Amino acid sequence: MSLWLALETSADLAGIAVRGPDGVVQEARIAGARRHASATIPAAIELLAPFGGVAALTGVLIADGPGSFTGLRVAAAVAKALHASRAVPVWAGSALAARAVRHAPPEGGQVLVAVNALRNEAYAAVFRVEATGLQVMFEARTVPVGALAAMATGCAVVVLDLPSPDGLGVPEEGHPVRIVAPDAAPSAAGLLTLLDVAGGATEITDVAAWSPVYGRPVEAQIRWEETHGRPLPHPLRTGG
After folding, report:
1. What counts of helices (H) and strands (E) characterise the chain?
2. Residue 235 lies in a domain
3. Cα-to-chain-centroid distance, residue 193
4. Model confidence over 204-218: pLDDT tens digits?
């Protein structure tokens, strides 16, 4: 028997989901990034209550970005607290990979996923999703939205979670490309599917030292590094 908690807080629309021993998934949604910190734990407690609470957890799965700096840190803090207090195993999966698996064609193929990174840029990655598992074809990184058309070459599906997905030069709808835009928002239930896909999720061995993949440095870090002329020291290492 297994009980999993999934936390998808990489975007403005957050998801908290529980998959019970019967495989049924229940999900709560939190709209608005400013609510993530206050609403994530109460939502998780409510969803876990029918199963005996956190004491019954098999593991917690969190979205490993790229995405919102604050949102990803909320999920990471909850997961680290569960690990420190209850020794709950922590797993992580790419927020982009979860969307690729969710929208991949039944016969398999390559999927481009691009989400809003502001500044007319996107966090983008290309995955090959097959029955045998998930393979990263293009590692997640920040790219200009104008580069998405070239990245879509050879893809069967393009998933766009952008403010204005139209007019980006991405190949037009139709075979062999299917555009997913209105239903491209992240999903904690979708994140849970990575547990069932080879190469989809990874257990974190050093939870205390682990940090999510944010996609780009936050503004404060950029200013610090520009002022000091060197990378910002990691908080778990000495120096500064």
Report:
1. 6, 11
2. no
3. 12
4. 999 999 988 887 655
